[in-house]
Amino acid sequence: MNHWIVAFIVLPGMVAAFLVLALRHDLARQRLVSISSTVALLAIAIGLFVQTGSGVTQAYLLGAWPAPFGIVLVLDRLSAIMILLMAVLALAVVLYASNGWDARGKHFHALFQFQLMGIAGAFLTGDVFNLFVFFEVMLIASYGLMLHGGGERRLRAGFQYVAINLIGSTLFLFAVGLIYATTGTLNMADIAVKAGGIAPGDTALLTTGALLLFLVFAIKSSLAPLHWWLPTTYSAAPAPAAALFAIMTKVGAYSIIRVHGMVFGGDGGAIGDMVSAWILPFALVTLAVGGVGVVATRRLADLIAFSVVWSMGSLLAAVALFDSAGLTAALYYTVHSTLAGAALFLLADLIAQYRGKPGAALVAAPPMARAALLGGLFFAAAIAMAGLPPLSGFIGKLLILDATRASDSAAWIWGIILSTSLFVIIGFSRAGSLLFWKAEAMGEEVAGADVPPEPRGDDRLPAVLAVSGLIAAIAALAFFAGPATSALELAVAQVLDPSGYVAAVLGVDAVAALGR
Amino acid sequence: MEFLIASGVGILTAAGIYLIMRGQSYPVIIGLAFLTYAVNVFLFAMGRLTVNQPPIIDKAAIGYTDPLPQALVLTAIVISFGMTALIVVLAMRGFLESGTDGVESESLVAANVAAGEAEGGERAGS
Lengths: 516, 126
What we know:
The complex is a heterodimer.
Chain A: H1 4-22, H2 27-52, E1 58-61, E2 72-75, H3 77-97, H4 108-124, H5 128-146, H6 152-183, H7 188-194, H8 203-220, H9 229-236, H10 239-245, H11 248-263, H12 270-296, H13 300-319, H14 324-355, H15 371-386, H16 392-403, H17 410-445, H18 461-479, H19 481-496, H20 499-506, H21 511-514
Antiparallel strand pairs in A: 1-2
Chain B: H1 2-20, H2 25-45, H3 67-98, H4 105-124
Helix pairs in contact in B: 1-2, 2-3
């Protein structure tokens, strides 16, 4: 067995415990340990990603209990890609947070590492109940991160966030119960094998379970009308936490692909087919809600939060196809929108810090220091998010439009994606011109209008570097779009044909029983 | 017994759903607690209802009850108990800081506006 797989869970878990117990009062060393651990995670993620290039799915049996009796972690191409994305994002976020945010409350780094453990576990696990447990690990850490720094607004938004997720967890348990009652197993590979052959009387129960599970993932991936918690939470959360949360919505999308696409057979399976019919209309509503929200908000963080909702709409519209082109486009867009969303949340915080009193409110204010640098970064991140050429958002949207061309509802999908894109472009250009150009015009009017002097020994440069790193990653994703999409295509092929997955977990004999 | 358990789960869920739709945080918390009770009983029944049978291997046993749902329920109880404690603390802090028990309504909007204004000061001071 390849023991590096479990490192994604053991390493952040141990580091988090160590940070709480041994380095509680020593912020400098906390930063050092947390950053080193994140770098190590990134190195392991790259190593495992290269390994999965051979196309072999690896199963890790915890405690060497044979599947399906024990819990398994499974590393295939899709998991490796998602873990790699998480590690890249985590490094940028932890560098940004070490520039001051972690000093505003206690235990930022410990919670951060626990959250990484939960996210990595959710991407790796091959067991539905274990997926619930890792969701909870991820959420419990996110409650702490969301409330980091305190304040009434965060508490109010935090209450809603915790309440909606507790309801989601309850639904998850109901769904797990129904799946166990009908198939007698919780192992994903085993469910995939047994779902086809259950008693006819149980089909309705299993379908109910699968749909309840979809509802839970829809809450996580902010599918309208279950999206309302997202803008409140993300705009109230501290910027580094919001940037890390950008991947939590993708955990929901990943789970839909993994459970409904792979385990329940996507478009081919009776249950997967039913779910895909539910996703598309609500994905289009999500697009509309996000697009309108972007134009309607008054604060930069709210605007970005709604653009995240909007991007989830485009992503899920492509997921609903459950075919090779659709899922490839969805995965490309997943990588893109995670990086772009995170970069924008961090930038909004930087802009608010440099602006001083007006903060992130979208009102004209006197010019800020380093306006050219921040304006340039904001411009790049905004065109990436809005999907304008030449950055990855444009390529992602092109892939989605191309994949949906043959669909029956292509006219609806194209119409809504393109018209809401216009809304998002308007929203971002209005915000950008208010923040940077109006400020310049105001600066000229005000008497003695000199731009405030560059703060000497500006200590925010590491934060600027972290954001620039994310934007460089977006540019790289656009530049290497060819190799990236072919890697994603191979990952999707593994999802659509789970025989490799089943063989890795249950042995080659079980593949015949898969019946697909 | 099937009828008793099924209607028990149903009534608990219905009460929970009614309560979580209220506008005050205290009823919402009680509603969440009802929902978690309901799901615990539900999970327990998923291994089929068997009375007076051991869950572990025993030579004298004539049949077994499914041990897995019992382990799942234990995990679910621990997690939901911890989460309920957390949300109680959150609601208390929210009540102490804002003086109201409302879940959303005007208080959040007002807090949003205030935060937009206060944010600059807070961040500049960091």
